[in-house]
């Protein structure tokens, strides 16, 4: 207390070095111990600094020094276990120590607002240890970084005020499980982004200030927020309709929505509500919009109300300078042209309400789901162009002549059913399998005659029959080659049920197509595991290139004989069990396995371009060209999607635990798949951490996992962040040939980012840098830094990672017809159907090839 008195100027009234501090004005002590428990110095017009010795006041519960002119660095207040209230706001403090607020289990209120001189600092993850936290006031306090995702750990948290800082990123999902009443996040320098959907789960909200940010998407349904009285959403990028439920909130008295891109009917609030609503509503007064406007806004809703449409589709006349819309002289919408807009989402059935529509162009987007059946009711529709999307399901049967263009949609026009059909190689003959049937649907021009329609129908039936015939021939040939033996209905669903199968005798088939392959087949395929066939090796063993009798190239991983039997067998079994339960285009597929005496082998699809590590670090040695930035960021997106699937999109959540560049394999078109699943573990359903044996690779291990053995899916996020750094720099995660200060990539990279050094000096020199490329790299570098944050609370989810990387990645394009012809043996898929049938070697076609040919011939017939 003497140090505090000496540091303040002037001395607070009633304070004297000659008196017991417990007698000082506004100082309270515990009567039983004589220890100081409270210091109240607010609004005393004092200056000076708070001495570090304050942390020696072990019994201090409350410190109030707000509204003064105090400056200098703040004490850390670390380990003051009794501290409950800390009021530091409205001063001139300059910096915050690294362990600021560490280990304060009883902290309830912390206020540091209006300290504009503070050097930039981030909210530390260890604040989550203050489980009694109730109120956090830090507006205009120099905070940077993302809002940490730990607020659901506070059972009594009610007030969060972080306005006028430099926070970035999105609202954390943990907000939805909190009891926050007062939420101020307005006026961030760069602007918070993402949607505000989490507000719908924050049912205790009473005041929300999110204005002057960069939030996007629609306003969520807040009908459960019955205590909300003040909602400030102005100056964002919000789109879509204002929910009707918002107008019925019983306590709402103040709302601002102006300077967004909201659409639809103008909301009608009660006369007691103070409001500012200015937006692109269809009318100045409440009431329904024009039917054509309503229909088009529903179309925008199917795409998630993209900002490009919201900025143009304003007012109540769709023919008045609405982008992508063309009308006739009578004011009827006749053309909707939304091609190549990078839209995702679904096609809205409300398009059927545009009764004058003639041409609808939705091609070259990322749309999913079916073509709405309601479009068949459009009396004037002539062209429906939906090619180059991800649509699925049947093509509706249009009654009038409509040119339906659907190519390059993976599942369009194909009925994937579970009844009928013949089994194909690798499937249980007793189990139903998908059968492929071209579906009905007219795609002719307006001049097509009834006779041609009949011919088209006949050709469609013939295509279906031939595809069925081809698939049967393929199946019989593979049956003859592979001699698959399946007895009864004893389908093996887990490797434990094999009882160590002797692979030297017969194939055993899993219900998902994975098979136990005879050792003789693999010996023949790999030339008896010759040195010439070695693709790579590691602690697990050796990987060999193999070629099966039907020409299929595979990668055969032969587990090391000298490995611990228990450990090696556990990883072997884990990988098979895992890969029989999950399938994803960005995960390497398991074709089969073999257990024969001491041999344990796994057979994977072959990835001809090797590992990402080869292309980043040893490209000259392997004769590769250096990867371009577009290739790198596309590879990163592929890997992120694979990990995202493991974490949140599979039937249950998994943690890979060994993400690294050598476990990322590349195809001929430089698309990436994640490999090596021997260390995969199921994540707990409650998303909490779990303790396990530390496994993985040094340099990619998250610090909390390496030190405690407790794993969450954030260990994969950390490892992925390291891979991003490797992609950007061309440097290995750990390179002991480099000086100590640069050998550990994460430490070096963070130092560069934190100190604001020139990022260009860290970028792989093989990359060609233009302004656009550098901007993309900068964003990905920032993401890599967030992914490798030292505390797992501060790392983003893989869903967020995918959303960040997605816009920078190269959009996938399918093979052009010439490439397809070359890939499938020179077969001319434009050849007439009888000639194709006569001259092609049907027996040599795979089921997939037959399906492709049949589908293309069906499309040719339709056109």
Q: Which properties best describe this structure?
A:
Leucine-rich repeat, LRR (right-handed beta-alpha superhelix), alpha/beta, 17% strand, 12-stranded mixed sheet, 7-stranded mixed sheet, Phosphorylase Kinase, domain 1, 863 residues, disordered C terminus
Report on the architecture of this protein.
It contains 17 helices and 44 strands. Among the domains are: 1-90 and 98-105, Leucine-rich repeat, LRR (right-handed beta-alpha superhelix); 298-413, Leucine-rich repeat, LRR (right-handed beta-alpha superhelix); 495-605, Phosphorylase Kinase, domain 1, CATH 3.30.200; 612-808, Transferase(Phosphotransferase), domain 1 (Orthogonal Bundle). It is an alpha/beta fold and 863 residues long. It starts with a helix and ends with a helix.
List the helices and strands and how they pair.
Layout: H1 2-7, E1 8-9, E2 27-29, E3 36-40, E4 47-48, E5 62-64, E6 69-73, E7 85-87, E8 92-95, E9 109-111, E10 121-122, E11 135-137, E12 143-146, E13 159-161, E14 166-168, E15 182-184, E16 207-209, E17 216-217, E18 230-232, E19 237-240, E20 254-256, E21 261-262, E22 274-276, H2 291-302, H3 307-310, E23 325-327, E24 333-337, E25 344-346, E26 359-361, E27 366-369, E28 383-385, E29 390-393, E30 403-405, E31 411-412, H4 450-482, E32 508-509, E33 515-516, H5 519-525, E34 534-538, E35 541-547, E36 553-559, H6 565-579, E37 590-596, E38 599-605, H7 612-617, H8 629-649, E39 654-655, E40 664-666, E41 672-674, E42 681-682, E43 690-691, H9 703-708, E44 710-711, H10 714-729, H11 740-743, H12 745-754, H13 771-787, H14 798-805, H15 817-823, H16 833-839, H17 847-862
Parallel strand pairs: 3-5, 4-6, 5-7, 6-8, 7-9, 9-11, 10-12, 11-13, 12-14, 13-15, 15-16, 16-18, 17-19, 18-20, 19-21, 20-22, 24-26, 25-27, 26-28, 27-29, 28-30, 29-31, 33-37
Antiparallel strand pairs: 1-4, 2-3, 23-24, 32-33, 34-35, 35-36, 36-38, 37-38, 39-42, 40-41, 43-44
Helix pairs in contact: 4-17, 8-10, 8-14, 10-13
